Amino acid sequence: xxxxxxxxxxxxxxxxxxxxxxxxxxxxxxxxxxxxxxxxxxxxxxxxxxxxxxxxxxxxxxxxxxxxxxxxxxxxxxxxxxxxxxxxxxxxxxxxxxxxxxxxxxxxxxxxxxxxxxxxxxxxxxxxxxxxxxxxxxxxxxxxxxxxxxxxxxxxxxxxxxxxxxxxxxxxxxxxxxxxxxxxxxxxxxxxxxxxxxxxxxxxxxxxxxxxxxxxxxxxxxxxxxxxxxxxxxxxxxxxxxxxxxxxxxxxxxxxxxxxxxxxxxxxxxxxxxxxxxxxxxxxxxxxxxxxxxxxxxxx
Length: 300
Description:
Layout: H1 2-31, H2 39-73, H3 82-106, H4 108-118, H5 144-148, H6 153-169, H7 180-185, H8 189-195, H9 213-218, H10 244-260, H11 265-273, H12 287-299
């Protein structure tokens, strides 16, 4: 009952907050002629988030609560202090998201799901709702260790909602830089603009949801450089992008095409599980390979 009330109050507060902030950003965008919003892109973002939310709501009870509850019943730790409990839950969940997000970028199978979030050439608050539709099928796996550490499944789901709200709010171009101490610890709009960039320097960088410390610790941090302005979207834009299902399934079609041209089972396996851009014949390159080439050019 308490968890249900908590979720209800969260929705009551967050939905009007989104509406006010998005409305203000739309007004500013039109007033200053920045053109940060297009009707087509907004409709597409809403369409994707509705598909994701419906699937997430269904799977939350089919998988999340059942599997996480089983894990929680077999927990081997228990934190008694309520303040320590929520603080550690926040840290663990943000760390779990970092590794999920990193795998989404470095394994093509999961990139095929996540790529929809990066497919827009716009960057505004509604881009935060441009969801990876099929992510709910596997996201809960990252929460199993947290449940085994003694955290209640409903608390895990609630904390995810809170951190996801923050993750949506950093999708804006109207905040250039936060104070230095903030930028050192937390994900800022500047950090997340880098994450959505198609510039070679910025690919696969700044994976954190709330805390940027994980990127600094694990080597995926990149500062936004005003000498290298962010270009949003993918390195190769989607053909026939106006078709709604094309946005969701285009990378699966690309994988199928690469499997057909594979010369062995091992090559087929690599096309599915290695980093996006990997190819057996050099016809395409990963972000790491592209960055190495850029470094060579810059040194010349």
